[in-house]
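Look over this one:
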Amino acid sequence: MTTDIVLSIVMLAALALLAGAFVLWRRTGEVRNPALMVLLALIAVVNVLIWTVPTSDGTSPLEGLEQGGAG
């Protein structure tokens, strides 16, 4: 349950980073800082995908973590 909350917060942070990068780019015309914000958002999304996408055997690392914590 707490892992779901953490993954949700990470996705919300990624969306906030994307929105903030867009606003910063439009206001200042700067490229480097918004690009780094987009890169950080992509890294956060990839981390969430690593934890949630099932592997070839049909289980995700998140499921293994939850099963290990329950036992």
